[in-house]
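Throughout our pipeline, every protein is held as a single compact record rather than as scattered files. The record that follows is passed on verbatim for readers who wish to inspect the format:
___
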Amino acid sequence: MPSVRKRTPPPLPYCFYLVQLCQRASTDGNDTTPGGRIFDGSWKERIFPSLQNTIFCAEVNAADKTQYTTTDKPWFTDECKNLYNAYQQALGTFNKYRSNENRLSLNLAKQKYKWLENKLKRQYKNQREINIKPRYTPQDLPGENTGTVFDELDSPFTEKELDDGIKKLKRDKSTGYDNMMNEYIIMSKNFIKPVLCKIFNCILTNGDFPELWVKSIIIPVFKKGDFNQPGNFRGISLVSHIGKLFTTLINARLTKWSRNHDVLTDAQFGFRPGYGTTDAIFALNSLISKSLRSGKRFYCCFVDYKTAFDSVTHMKLWLRLIRLGVT
């Protein structure tokens, strides 16, 4: 494990400088546009260190208990929520007073909640299976030389997008090479959003990515097998949280764009909001059951790619994105 680096308080001039910078970013657009006095060729050497130092000196309120949660359960209704709350209440009562009566109430509340949960899951999956949309075929997608550009991918970032990205940040995560914690970004978001939005738009326009964001600390994590074989370890990269926030905004745009243009087929369950491996198991089980009822044979082929993510050529990925119209 890497050694923990102690943080030293930044000089106060950095804080005052960034206060002025944030005010100018909010009021004077001429000075903050790419190519202006602030975002010139040396903006990374001047602005980003100041931003980093200022976030470091932002006080994190230890009494703050705000939790940011997201849900990927569109089938979760108010009735299901009420039964879940009743189950949690019964669980708390049983943990406090372990009587047979409370045990019976707990089991009854759990059975009611699980019955409704499974029912709503089945209904949602059946409805989604019926409403499968036809995917784009290769001839429907813009060709490599068509010059088609999607404006929603190239438009400047808004503070609303940035705020949505900050809400997705998770607390208690290991820091990257810049030692920047997500808690600092979350607690100072109202202060840094204007200038951070300007920095992100400057990167989006000029393609000038800070080198500090691409540096990472690699932690080897053992998977299984022989401990002496390097191939049995999985590398975990600790990267800059601000750099990861920028890529989160990019990914959100690509996800929305691919959904609006039906680029991905509904048969793809990985790395998509609202989808999971249980959906694939449900679809496979439905196909098997249908074949058995018809008295037909059903053949399956399972492919497990070794080091799949490490084996893909990056240039082919870029060419594929260009062919789809992603600039």
Observations:
- The chain has a mean pLDDT of 74.
- DSSP finds 13 helices and two strands in the chain.
